[in-house]
Amino acid sequence: MNEFSVVGKPVLKVDSLSLACGSAFFTADFTVKDPLFLAFFYSPHAHAEITAIDDSPARAMEGVVDVFHSGNTSSGLFTTAGQGYPEPSPYDTRLFNKTVRYAGDIVGAVLAESDKTARAAARAIAVEYTLLLPLFDPEKAMDGDVPRIHGEDEYAPLPVAYRPEQNIAGEVLFSFGNVEKGFTEADFIEEETYNTHCTSHCAMEPHAATASFDEHGRLVIYSSTQVPFHARRIVSMTTGIPLHRIRVVKPRIGGGFGSKQEVILEPYVALAAWKHKRNVRAELTRREVFTTVRTRHAMRVRVKSGFKKDGTITALQMDDLMNTGAYGAHALTVLSNAASKVLPMFNKIPNMAFTGHAVYTTLPVGGAYRGYGATQGYFAFNQHVDAICRKVGADFVEYVKKWHIREGETSEVFRAIGEGTEGVSQIVRSCKLTECLDRGAEEIRWNELRGKRLRSGSVVKGVGAAVSMQGSGIAMVDMGSASMKMNDDGSFNLFAGATDIGTGSDTILSQIAAERLGISVEMIVILSSDTDLTPFDTGAYASSTTYISGQAVLRCAEKIGEQLLSTASSMTGAPVGNLSIGKGGKVINSADGSEIPFSEIACYSMYSRNQFQIQAQASFFGEESPPPFMAHFAEVDVDMETGRVRVVKFVSAGDCGQPINPVLALGQIEGATLNGISYALTEQYLFDAKGKMTNNSFWDYKIYGSLDIPEVKAILAESSEPSGPYGAKSISEIGINGPAPAIANAIFDAVGIRLRELPMTPEKVLAAIKAKAGR
Amino acid sequence: MSEVSPAWWGGIEMKGSFIVNGKKAEWSFAPDAVLLDVLRNNGHTEVHRGCGEGECGACAVILEGRLVNSCQVFAASAAGQKITTVAGIGSIHSPHPIQQAFVEAGAIQCGFCTPAMILAVFCLLQKTPNPTDDEIRKALDGNLCRCTGYVKIFEAVRLAARRMSSNE
Amino acid sequence: MNRIEWYFPETIDEAAALLARERTVPHGGGTGLVKSGLSSFSGVVDLAKLPLNYLKMEKGILEIGASQTFASVAENLSNLCPDCILVAALGSAASTPLRNRITIGGSVSFFPPWSDLIGPFSVLEGEICTEGKNSGTYDLSSWLANRPVQQGTLVTSVLLPDAADWDSCYYREVRVGFDYPAFTVSVVARKNGSKIEKVRAAVSGGLERVTRLSGIEDGLNGKDLSQLASLDVKKMARVTFGRKPAGSAEYLSEIAAVHVERCLKSVLLGGGELR
User: ipTM strictly over 0.90?
Assistant: First the structure.
């Protein structure tokens, strides 16, 4: 085992005391002088052309300053997706579209002296529409005779497949070998179709943004964002405000999970502020968050495999249809991940084919959501594997242990499928999935419970498992950078572009720097995610922060280390070769054992002779995306009379390489697990016949609370990833991939029914139980 | 009727006095304003708005000794009463054992639910210094958290309970 | 802005007089008015200072002042009469901070389809006492049947004349723990050895706000416990529902009946209701 001083230790999260005491600021907590408030008005129709907007009733109201809409404000096409430029998502939306494409689409915005006035004025605006035919069924989207939702000037900035004339927002095609031939070599063929649903992230903090002016008249935007640098760029692009006149600051964020990897509010507050030269605030209500912000994409996954009696898979074919909703943000990339993060798991399959389409519908917009396509793909994959095991009489755990990708191995899929650009070939260098499976199986009491169907009254018990892998950043695309400077007392300021959205990246990046320099985290003062003060980082997504931003910090700290040694050498005359970084903030001379404290080095460098500021910067981008691995286990009780599924215990055993902070890593797993459980069982979007969401509040959109939690056990199986900072890989997304398939497999274990559609509500479970019993 | 109303008209708005974290303040508000907005508009941004409908608990404060969702309380009906926010039980310079326990147990990720959650724990431990897991579950039943899965929140409550009862 | 007066009366007579005014509404502290808003009112009568925050239990007669919150009722009864069905029902309604605001008076005035009070109130055959306009004492069915009687009246208390010495079972159908119930099942019974002295059962949340299962009650009152096995409870407990987000009408009807059977078995034969 590695011996680290700070890395791998449960260092207290650097911002938690301020959060516990209420001294930390979230976006809506900042006061700006004399603010105006922006509130939106939305389309009630799923598909319509706006023919007239009469904003005079609003303008006549006292306190209303302005009204923005397609009648008076034009913008170019762009994507709201927070991704690297040029984005792999189509440019298919404007700030104010003349065609509205789902019930909840933004029509306009009112600027007023108070939030209350802005909202009242928004309700007073009369909009006339010509109704167009809606399209709600993604299975029909590519047919010839259905409404076309896009296809005027919309385009994809990258050379990717984009065919809006067929309602296709993205397409992924991949194959190797010959699946048809593979099917002929099989003893059995198994084919099923799975359907996942759209859900909301439910970050506790609703989206908010404030645009204000500093003393020089530059625009300063505080935003609840996962992507401050992308936000700055997109604000400039959509509003025409010069980028160098914009500063984006990310304060504390109340959760994102992908919902804030989207540039939604910032362009509007910037536009309004810039026009009126007034400070502007916008804060979405929870109801607006449900419909205006993005969702998890609903996906249909059809899996067909051919396999031999001994379980060897001869061919695997997957056909995905992803409902991207009204706009194509993240359409191609989520679809890509449903393949690229799933198919490599069984890398010995000789024949594989994947077809995937992301299609437009007149429904709320899919976007980035923890798991990012892998979640949907693994719901299908893990049940399919469970079915194969049942057919050939194999144990799921032993089967996966036999077939999963291993250290030293690769998969064709890595090279073939990227995220809008080509994929990147890689060899898996760290993988402890077998250990995850063994430890998880033991913890859930797999052997005692599997297949036993222990019964108590009408309740039957079952256990099920699932496995998943994710990535660590997007190879050759995601970049992070950091800079550091030294202070008199031997402490350092660390400036990182990386975006802490509650995940604790400020803490783990400080730990990495502290480890490299042999000091405690208290001597690292971190400031992150300010486009004026910190260097660039793509932002908090793709599980990139630990691996990519972490490497940037490590390299930066290494350069600092070199400067410390060379300065110490100048101070003492000792050759650099005899000097090394010690523990506790000192440089050690191996020749005579003498120590030079950091503080002395700092003061020497700043004040004494040949003065210079000890400072460094470094950037890093990943040449590979080493996957974390996880095994997920569910113990469920199924009530045969009511269909109620209770998760009794859930075990998530994961390999994230060297956990930089085990408490934070476990926290990510625990949170993702619970989110995944309510995703599987209780969360859903309900729509009326006109495509309007009817349950846009926590009243009827149900997530798990303290009364619902099963026993959750998170386990870390440590490996060491050679390309990761101190051996680390990512951890924050993968936990959410397992619960839905593990629970589904556990339900099958208990009552012999396979649920292929989410959510697995009691009514659906009961109907399936009855259908099996022939009732 | 009483001569001294807790809240009264003061021009175009109502006025009322509130005792927040031990300090008396006189604030103006609309007759239909809720306590959450009045608190936030008057500097108490540690009280958070998560849903505005009483469904998430992020806005919870202690009103006359009871945990309530401040978005579901009319300011007028809370006038003249004692209100405690998380800033009233401890500060960054001198945190309350519950705040400290949350930090040490790793029970805080994004922290948005945290102030209200800590107040819920405060109320629980006042009434039940050594709560069972079921009692913890129930006391926190109105406080949603999407980040932690509640696991370390429960550990923090147990830690705080142990420490606070051993100090007595 | 719409000028809305807030009043803080200290006597019931004052409050009743204020409520007789037009567009003047009572507020006990609950969430109903916050949700519906004040825009259609010109006056709000805050009931906090009225002497309505009490709970008395004497010889099995339970009187609860209208300003008692769900939390207070559950707490007080868990000391006075821990087996009372109201402890389970009111103690699990909504959430902790909401139970600290929802009042008996407010709940009785609104009696929404998701009420956790209405089922127990029905099986305990409670009465609603009001002052001011339409003052009087109402049983549940006449209260529910006559909505206009509730306008402008001040609910002062509820009376449950026979609230103690019951075995009880309460079930609420929820999707997650913090949820409004799609339906509730309330069963109370008194046994004497193996004889069922009295049993009452009700399902709330159906198309009729609350339904007493009189067929089942008639089939069991005064009979031996063994009689339970001979009743087709699942069929007799069927209540008609509308579709809800929690499930279709048919599903809710079916599982409500399942839970009625479970509650009856739990109360009459022992053993807990499965969660």
Answer: yes
